[in-house]
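User: I'm putting together notes for a lab meeting next week and I want to include a structural view of one of the chains we've been expressing. I don't have a solved structure, so I'd like a prediction I can at least talk through. The sequence is below, exactly as it appears in our construct file.
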Amino acid sequence: MGSKFTGDAFIHQVPLNIWYAGALTKNYPVTIRAEELYILNQFIRQKRAQDEAPIAIGFGPASIDLLLAGAMGVTYEAVFLNNPLISLKSLMREKDYQVKFIPSLIPGMLSHFDFTDLMKIIPYQITVVNPVLPNGTLAGPVKASSNYQGNRNNVELILDRDQEATNTVILQKIQLMNNR
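Assistant: Thanks for the context. Below is the predicted structure for the 180-residue chain, given as structure tokens.
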């Protein structure tokens, strides 16, 4: 079998068998990652002066993990969500969604809350950069703006198809935060 074995639940380079095991044991990968984020956060805070909160950057599906960890009490100075899924509910409407988002979900969560609900209870700055639709394409400005409209002032939306320029903006914002 070796390294070429991918198994029957390996779809679009995503090992869904890990998610299925989580469903059987009720210990989902996203909850394990949220616990890991909490432990890592505590470790970083102990090593930094004055118990400063770290800054987190989540790319793609990892954005879901950061939001769930934040809703469970993991605190950061700020969070940057780069190419996050625009919303959980969008998965229900899209037939051709990217499988990579599934391991960051818990059964039933789609019917109980969405990302904007999580963002409302998270007290720190959240910067959403180039949200994507479930099929992986960038959400347009109208769709992205309307999705985050009504959120508290802690959410900033950045839309720019030039990923390099977007990364530069993120780095500049982090440098400003570190210089305070």
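A couple of points you could mention at the meeting. The chain has one domain: 10-178. The chain has a mean pLDDT of 81.

User: Perfect, that's what I needed.
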